[in-house]
Design brief:
The structure holds two protein chains of two kinds. Chain A has a domain of about 160 residues: MetI-like fold (Orthogonal Bundle). Helix content of chain A is about 70%, strand content about 0%. In chain B, helix 1 packs across helix 2, helix 11 packs across helix 20 and helix 14 packs across helix 15. Chain B is built from 20 helices and 16 strands. Chain B has a five-stranded mixed beta sheet with strand order 2-1-3-14-6. Chain B has a five-stranded mixed beta sheet with strand order 8-11-7-12-15. In chain B, strands 4-5 form a two-stranded antiparallel ribbon. By secondary structure, chain B is α/β, with parallel strands linked by helices. Chain B is globular and about 70 Å long.
């Protein structure tokens, strides 16, 4: 019999207070986005815009090709997610299912690489992309990231949970490794695959340093560096930056609202957040 | 015979063309694409204006001007120059020595000599910053100067007499106290004085006739060094400037524009932000820094245009550098309003002052600052950059909080400076 817990008023109060703490910065961002530059400079800061204006939003479109950057971000995020899933699932399959010779050593190397800050690889990554003559291209934005050690490790953990019997039965039926991977392993470990896809898209959506370093044309950048270009060196029109921030976050918020059940279920199963 | 000669000629021409890509472009009139990289968005309009004029005069050369946020500027340079790529022409600062040592920058002496460019037309201290082992790697584009800006509307409203052109430190303290006494809102601030060791404090040491480093050793423990520390702290303790601990996100430019701050010490690179602010003309006035013992001092640094040693179009890149730093180029850049030209021509200075004409008295204030400028400590001694974060955070933080005396603070600073200089 399922025990029914009584939810006290203080639980609601705690949930509301926590919700407000989380949502307040977003609300402030939206409010600042519809202020005039003068309002954003007030001391103490004003939180309610009066009057509201879309001047900041218009300024965003004047200063950067926002729609181009948004399209680039969508293309690059999608491309990165697809290629990352392909590369990482094949690598994880080799380590977890096939158990290739030296897989333990490879895993230790992967764990070691996980502990190294990614920015360290900026210079060698640039040298590799430059040797391919691919700097200042959209592909350059995601190519180094598709070889993602975190993704390999994450999928390795999920693939290890796939019942051996299923894989062995398929092998006895003459299924190839690619067929086993696509028809058995990935569907069984789909929550891990979906989690990795989401994390990859989020990571690309907010990436800043690599796009700035590898590309130089404004129309070959993504939203992260686009927003950074709206900041001045010494002073910043915060209403413009916040208006751009709202517009940049909006697609992700809409996607989350549409797919929130799948998102939450996937992360709950994967134990990530 | 004719046939053989023609073949020889073609072979020789091909070899020559392969050897010098620039020669190909010049010889056959092919278009050349140059890339130029800067970091300050406030200066982009001025640089673009100069670039447009260069392109108009050189129709076969196209310049792509890229602006990279300052936080990522050097990371991008490190990555791209390390891979043998990078912009043809770029800005450099006091970090230039690292790139020179790495062989990433092209010495310009050959070009300077060939075109007979005189370096006497630039601020001497800045020109010297880009000379390493007798070779010139950069042509100066701008320099820094500090002036005081006051919001005349606030002085008028409060009925306080504003600073005069020949004001002193005592005048500054007196005026700030008068304003403080009449300000009613707790959000209002009478004065902003740059409290950073490398700027405001060091400038005061120089004003008092001392130096931060002499004979390769820190000299903050001198009477002038200790007095300078005490003078800045006194401003804080008497409430004339914000408490230093609360000042990290205080932006004097924004505060002046919003009318919350009456007067502030402002560097030249921020003047255009004030002149472009949406306030009535005549709101902001400029005066030189207040004198102490009849003198004042303004720390300076300066940027330069440098050339990538791996540029495929060195002749064209040099032509671009030459134009951007010429009298005409400097005037066009200055018309953008940001970046005080290191080109010493009267026309360049006049263009900068005109672009910032909403700041009353700027010409005299800048002249006074330029006359009394000295190389910033970290500019003259780049090794000090390693110790500066410690000085700013732990040493100066403890001093301004009142837990360490000025004499002990000066001694600690000297110890850090000496360690850095070793």
């Amino acid at each position: 019999m399922q025990h029914q817990y009584r939810v006290g008023w203080w639980t609601y109060a705690l949930v509301i207070a926590t919700g407000l703490v989380i949502l307040a910065p977003f609300a402030w961002m939206v409010a600042t986005g519809v202020m005039t530059t003068g309002q954003t400079l007030q001391v103490p800061p004003s939180i309610i815009p009066a009057p509201t204006t879309l001047a900041g939003t218009e300024e965003v479109f004047d200063r950067i090709p926002f729609l181009t950057l948004l399209l680039n971000t969508i293309l690059v995020s999608t491309g990165r997610a697809i290629f990352t899933l392909v590369v990482c699932s094949m690598a994880a399959y080799a380590l977890a299912i096939i158990k290739v010779p030296g897989s333990q050593v490879i895993l230790i190397l992967i764990l070691a690489l996980l502990m190294v800050p990614g920015d360290i690889f900026i210079v060698p990554n640039f040298a590799i992309i430059a040797s391919f003559r691919m700097t200042d291209t959209l592909v350059a934005l995601f190519l180094p990231s598709v070889f993602d050690v975190f993704g390999v490790f994450l999928l390795y953990q999920f693939f290890r949970g796939v019942p051996r019997e299923l894989v062995e039965a398929a092998r006895m039926d003459g299924a190839s490794h690619l067929r086993i991977l696509t028809t058995i392993v990935v569907p069984v470990a789909r929550s891990g695959v979906v989690s990795l896809a989401i994390l990859t898209v989020l990571s690309e959506w907010k990436d800043l340093l690599w796009p700035i370093v590898v590309n130089r044309s404004l129309d070959k950048l993504t939203l992260g560096p686009g927003l950074a270009l709206l900041r001045g060196t010494y002073t910043t029109d915060w209403n413009v930056v916040m208006a751009a921030g709202v517009m940049a976050a909006l697609p992700m918020i809409v996607i989350f609202l549409i797919l929130q059940k799948q998102f939450i279920a996937s992360f709950a199963r994967s134990g990530l957040k | 015979m004719l046939k053989t000669n023609r073949r020889r000629f073609l072979v020789a021409a091909s070899v020559a063309a392969l050897a010098t890509p620039s020669a190909v472009n010049l010889a056959f009139g092919a278009d050349v694409n140059l890339s130029l990289m800067i970091w300050d968005p406030a200066q982009k309009a001025g640089v673009q204006k100069a670039v447009d004029a260069f392109e108009a005069a050189n129709p076969a050369v196209h310049v792509s001007l890229g602006q990279v946020p300052q936080d990522q500027y050097y990371t991008k340079l490190d990555a791209s120059l390390g891979a043998g790529q990078g912009p043809d022409v770029m800005w450099q600062s006091s970090k230039a020595s690292y790139y020179v040592n790495g062989g990433a920058l092209q010495p310009l002496d050959e070009f300077i000599k060939k075109d007979g460019v005189s370096l006497n037309g630039y601020k001497k201290e800045i020109t010297g910053l880009y000379n390493f082992d007798g070779q010139q790697y950069g042509i100066p584009k701008d320099f820094d100067a500090w002036v005081f800006i006051y919001n005349a509307e606030i002085f008028k409203t409060l009925g306080v007499e504003p600073p005069k052109v020949d004001w002193t430190w005592e005048d500054m303290v007196r005026i700030a106290a008068e304003i403080k006494a009449k300000q009613t809102s707790t959000a209002d601030v009478p004065l902003y004085y740059n409290y950073a060791f490398n700027n405001g404090v060091a400038s005061l040491v120089h004003s008092l006739g001392g130096a931060v480093i002499a004979n390769g050793k820190g000299t903050m423990s001198s009477a002038e060094g200790v007095k300078a520390l005490d003078m800045v702290k006194e401003l804080q303790d008497s409430g004339l400037i914000l408490k230093i601990a609360d000042s990290s996100d205080f932006n004097p430019v924004n505060a002046l524009i919003s009318g919350k701050l009456a007067m502030a010490e402002i560097p030249s690179w921020n003047l255009s932000l004030l002149s472009k602010a949406d306030v009535p003309s005549g709101t902001f006035h400029a005066v030189r820094l207040p004198a102490e013992n009849g003198s004042w001092a303004s720390d300076t640094n300066g940027l330069s245009y440098v050339m990538n040693a791996n540029s495929q179009h060195k002749d064209e890149a040099w032509q671009l550098i030459k134009f951007l730093t010429s009298d005409d180029g400097a005037v066009l850049h200055a018309e953008g309003g940001a970046g005080l030209p290191a080109n010493t021509s009267e026309a360049a200075r006049a263009a900068f002052v005109k672009a910032n004409e909403k700041l009353i008295g700027l010409q005299d204030a800048l002249s006074a600052a330029g006359d009394k400028s000295y190389l910033r400590t970290t500019t003259q001694y780049p090794k000090v950059l390693t110790g500066l974060p410690t000085i700013n955070s732990s040493v100066m933080g403890a001093f301004y909080s009142g837990s360490v005396s000025a004499a002990d603070t000066a001694k600690q600073i000297d110890d850090i400076l000496n360690k850095s200089l070793r």
